[in-house]
Write a structure and sequence with these properties.
The protein has helices at 3-7, 19-30, 47-50, 71-76, 86-99, 189-201, 225-233, 235-243, 263-276, 292-309, 313-318, 387-390, 402-408, 440-460, 470-485, 515-527; strands spanning 9-15, 35-38, 106-107, 112-118, 123-128, 133-141, 163-166, 181-185, 204-209, 216-217, 333-334, 346-350, 356-359, 363-366, 370-372, 375-378, 394-395, 424-426, 466-468, 533-535. It has 536 residues and is of the alpha/beta class. Strand 4 and strand 5 (123-128) form a beta hairpin. The two termini are 27 Å apart. 47% of the residues are buried. The structure holds 3-acetylpyridine adenine dinucleotide.
């Protein structure tokens, strides 16, 4: 066999060079497998490679947002801030790639165009956009759950002669907004993080809002040497607590629900959670996401906090969410977001009743008026959960198309394997715990470990193929839906359920049964020899 033919006959193809892909390649190499990995971007980083907009930072505390698989790494790395900003996280991932010599195993600037499972050889035939054909036993997607940007199909999109940017495809050289009239479309996390910084530079900033958000203060700050040292020394215990937690970070919740608390203790508890900042606010009460009455109490309290930030009461009312409850749409953390609406150069444009109709040569037009702009920013979100996989043209047994199947109904087993697609693994795939309800670094590592252990199990048991049965898959979907449908999340229109994409089947995309519970289920499957999975 020639060297290039040998290079293209591998045990595993891994797609993606973010947190999951890097760790997956590391684990497989350590176990002695031949691996080729592919990444569309020009370097490692995944989410943190693409999302370079001003103000991009992680909403999970940096001490918890890192790998735990290597003791020396976690003891040596120093995070500068409570919530790490994008350049710091990218620097961390570049360091990990260097430290474990992972880059040589990746082909960068290389998208996967198509892949099909060949039943005769029991191997995946994978084709890249650069024309390579690779034959692999295992096909592992580490493509992230928020990787395929959603670009709304605005009329006249290309007529606009000014600058146009998408937050998730931000130019590496940055953008200078000085003296410019800027239009920001969308008010999700990306917009909420970037708006305060853009508002400092732009001559005028129009924020086009369709749905207001319950953003809560991050209270970001520098980490002291002492805090960092304490974390580094106690990582073993912290990681243990994180793994045992509901969402992959350690926190405490009261035992009673919000509606059971009297007015004084409710006020005290919410102030306490608010002051701690960030996601700990979501843990303010255990029934926040399941009980309408409790959710309303907390939502009303947060609404008052928002009102208190805005000088003009008419603008404040526009910023108050009314169609859903706190926590049922991804809660963005903010630093100075509401304050921008007190600046004279910032205008909030409510497009809920008067939608954006078209882009024009000089800006854009809503049903209520026209806006002259030099720059338009699309902060319009993602085709979450499925988008990164369905864009890839994956065909399993009998030529079954993953795109076609998920167009009708999004089904998976543990979020990690799909019936009809043997040896395909989908890390952070739909119906696994992912970004919405889990600290990604905790959950991704656990899922990579399960995938690797599964591959090792096959080797030990002289098997080459694993595929979930229809019955096992049906059981997982039923379990997932039962938990999801008992929450208030499914009542809110957002990317959490795929409702931001016209025609996408509605189902909560992330498993919400708890990270620790999910880990235990995965461990039991492994320990009991993969019941409900066909091994061949
Ligand atoms: O996207 P989004 P995002 N006309 O989907 C609006 C993660 N993240 O990129 O709500 C007008 O939240 C849309 O309006 P509506 C995080 O998990 C993490 O901000 O559909 N508006 C909405 O306001 C987050 O949840 C971090 O009515 C239109 C916005 O665009 C996820 O990524 C940082 C429109 C999209 O908001 C996605 O966040 C940033 C139209 N035609 C992001 N179409 C970290 O902390 C869409 N919109 C790591």
């Amino acid at each position: 066999m020639s060297a290039s033919a040998e290079r293209n006959q591998v045990d595993a193809v891994v797609v993606g060079a973010g947190f999951a892909g890097l760790y997956q390649v590391h684990r497989l190499l350590k176990a002695g497998y031949r691996v080729r990995a592919f990444e569309k971007g020009s370097d490692v980083g995944g989410t943190w490679y693409w999302n370079r907009y001003p103000g991009a930072r992680c909403d999970i505390e940096s001490i918890c947002y890192s790998y735990s698989f290597d003791e020396a790494l976690q003891r040596e790395w120093r995070w500068p801030q409570r919530y790490a900003e994008q350049p710091d996280i990218l620097r961390y991932l570049q360091h990990v790639a260097e430290r474990f010599n992972l880059r040589p195993h990746f082909a960068f600037n290389t998208a996967i165009e198509a892949a099909h499972y060949d039943e005769a050889s029991q191997r995946w035939q994978v084709r890249t956009a650069t024309g390579e054909e690779i034959s692999s036993r295992f096909f592992i997607m580490a493509t992230g759950c928020l990787s395929k940007p959603l670009e709304p199909n605005f009329k006249g999109l290309d007529l606009f002669t000014g600058e146009r940017y998408q937050t998730s495809r931000w130019p590496h050289a940055g953008v200078d907004f000085t003296g410019k009239r800027v239009g920001m479309i969308g008010t999700g996390s990306s917009s909420i993080q970037s708006t305060p910084i853009i508002a400092q530079q732009a001559a005028q900033l129009f924020v086009f809002q369709r749905t207001p958000q319950f953003a809560i203060p991050a209270w970001n700050r520098e980490l002291t040497d002492e805090e960092m040292r304490t974390a580094q020394e106690s990582y073993a215990e912290l990681r243990r607590l994180m793994r045992q937690s509901e969402v992959g970070i350690d926190y405490e919740s009261p035992t009673i629900g919000a509606k059971e608390a009297d007015a004084a203790s409710l006020q005290k508890q919410l102030e306490f959670a608010w002051d701690r900042g960030g996601y700990l606010m979501l843990a303010a009460y255990p029934d926040l996401l399941t009980d309408l009455e409790s959710n309303k109490l907390v939502s009303d309290w947060v609404k008052e906090k928002i009102r208190a930030r805005i000088k003009d009461p008419a603008v404040a009312e526009k910023l108050i969410p009314r169609s859903y409850g706190f926590g049922t749409y991804r809660v963005p953390l903010e630093t100075g977001y509401y304050d921008v609406y007190n600046q004279p150069n910032v205008e909030l444009v409510d497009v809920s009743q008067a939608p954006i109709e078209a882009f024009t040569e000089n800006g854009l037009k809503t049903a209520a008026g026209e806006y002259a702009l030099d720059v338009i920013i699309l902060a319009t979100g993602f085709d979450a959960g499925t988008g990164s996989l369905t864009q890839m043209n994956i065909h399993g047994r009998d030529g079954r198309s993953l795109t076609e199947e998920w167009r009708k109904d999004i089904r998976s087993t543990l979020g990690l394997q799909v019936n009809g697609f043997p040896n395909l693994f989908t890390i952070a795939g739909p119906l696994a715990p992912s970004t919405a309800f889990c600290n990604m670094t905790t959950c991704l590592q656990q899922q990579v470990d399960w995938v690797t252990d599964t591959i090792l199990y096959l080797r030990e048991h002289h098997q080459t193929v694993i595929e979930p049965t229809v019955a096992r898959q049906d059981a997982w979907v039923k379990h997932h839906d039962e938990i999801a449908n008992a929450t208030l999340l499914v009542r809110t229109k957002s990317w959490y359920t795929g409702a931001n994409i016209k025609g996408k089947p509605i189902r909560l995309l992330s498993y919400i049964g708890g990270a620790a519970n999910y880990r235990q289920i995965c461990e039991e499957v492994k320990a009991s020899g993969y019941p409900g999975f066909a091994l061949a």
